[in-house]
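User: My collaborator and I are trying to settle a disagreement about how two of our proteins should look. Neither of us wants to argue from intuition anymore, so we agreed to look at predicted structures for both before our next call. Could you fold the first one, then the second, and keep them clearly separated?

Assistant: That sounds like a sensible way to settle it. I'll keep them separate. The first protein:
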Amino acid sequence: MNPSNQSPVAPDSIRTLIISNDHSEAVKIESVLARETAPQFLVHLAKSAEAGITVLQRGAVDVVLLSMSADGDRSGEALKLLSDRFPDVPVVVLKSKADEKTGTDALRQGAMDYLDKEGLDSRICSRVIRYAYERQHLREEIKSLALFDGLTRLYNRRGLEILAEQQLKLARRRKKGLLLILADINGLGKINDQFGYEQGDMTLVSMSKLIKGTFRESDIMARIEASAFAVLAVEAEYENAERILERLRGNLRNFNAQERSPFQVSLTTGVACYDYHHVTAFEQLLEQGTGDLAVNKQSRLKI
């Protein structure tokens, strides 16, 4: 689920839903879009917002073209309904050329853009739809970036918290266990001071790869502080913790043996086990794990 670092690529085809209660208008717009081949428009027609929702529920739509006469006086309500129900599908409004207010009002209500119905040009129409599609994908990319750590490409604390709450609900319903394992790089500040921040960053990236190699793809891995990582191991019980930590120790030993580095990397860990009878929120589980980590730091227990 890592976000891309590149701009959205123009698609070969865009699935476009035209909502208009005027069938001749809808067919005319469809014929305008048919003139364009890059991208190709795969068109669905609907006579009302309700009919359009049926198509949207099948997940077969990239962009909606909504005629503001589609539901008569209820066209504004139709736009709000679509924006509320399907916020990830951009809506482009079709309005009368003389009615500029409808276009600006539509933007305030959540539309991505608007077009004038009169003299609809295939190139302009194609460009507006394509831009709406690409802007939506860019928004989704920005949203996903907000959940990831830019350096390690693991989840950040916010991403971990969101996904962990979902996992806690699943574990509670299924009566399954969860393990939270924290790992803190010892002396990262000294590494930065003695060898430079670039070396410190390289150490963080190396440890993130080591963690990915230790845990399962189904586990949720995150960098939650400057030197600290957290892993939520799904469907794992407390008795699995030592086996997991031993695997982490072995991987770290191998890393230090193979890496030509002026220093050895060590980690201090903390463990918390999810008990659905007593733990109701991820924050509680994180507090337990942080407490265990602090005790191990004080005792100089490290791997």
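The second protein, kept apart from the first:
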Amino acid sequence: MHDLSLSFLLIFLLAILFPNWLFGQFFPNPSFEGPRGSHLSPPPWKPCERNSTPDTQPGAWEVTKLPTDGNSYISIIARGTHGPASNTPEDINIKLNRDLLAGHCYSFSIDLSMSTKFGHTSSIGWINYDTPAVLKIYGGNINCEEAELLWLSDPISNSNWETLFFTLRPTEESIKYIRLAADYHNAFSYYGNILIDNIQTYTEKVIYTIAMDTIVDFGDTLHLSASSGDAYKWSSENQLSCSDCREQLLVVKGSGSYVVEIEDAYGCNFFEEFMVEIRYDPELLFVPNLITPNGDGANDHFEIRGLPDRSKLEIFNRSGKLVYSKDFYDNSWNGQETNGRSLPKGIYFYKLKSELFSQPYTGFIEVIK
């Protein structure tokens, strides 16, 4: 019992002193807690390149800025043309608590800054690492691998801490290791530094999911509800009740899929697909046999009741010549050719096709003027 109490006390103290370290979802030690000093990496973070010697700050190389979280943070540099390690940027690497999966979108935040005082003396005098560098985030399946560049920042020129939100979308394989690397921006080499603190995890989204796969009767009302997000963009070959809303309320007249692109508050874009198959009763179909397109509002158009979405209508004259065709017929034909020219009164023949029909429907339609 005594040992168990000590264990709980230790966990409680760790949770108070290093909350992000203990409960970080993906990154061990996400606020880079560790002994401060030059050439010291906070465990379990480690450098990859031979000349990479990250520093745990503040206190090294004239850096005095306070952390944004916990008691310490790291600095990595881009070296210029002088010295034995010239023209080499620094990096630091970590094995994640759990993999970043290919086909998922992950949103994070990170606190970044640079120090205008970062520097040291050398054989050529004082060297100031005051040119903004960029931060690259690589992912890999083995330690220090650069299998995929997951994110590239703009040059870090702010001398005060700024919190940046970014997304990681592994495309080729799942990611076990993350590598943070300083690099040059639009130049071969120069002296620059990046200060890094407090990586936070916000969301994990599967980029593409099947949200529904269902069979409904023709003419049923269908309610589609997308997952929570900040913005929506729907697409479908069938009719939509809206294009940028979260929910669709539809009278279903055709099989097909409805796809919505969702953007969350942290910039992750993901897709959900709703697949719908229609059961169609042929008795629902009613095709009139005459129209009177005289503009009086009665029988002006060839209106087919029970018309499935994406039906194709073809109209032929007595000689069998195709005079009108519309792939997505919308009950709009009023006795005109495909080019809009008015047809003479008389008997015409129609062919109505749909993926819901076992064979085309055919018959005649009389145009009375």
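Some points you might bring to the call about the second protein. The first strand starts at residue 55 and ends at 57. The chain has a mean pLDDT of 89.
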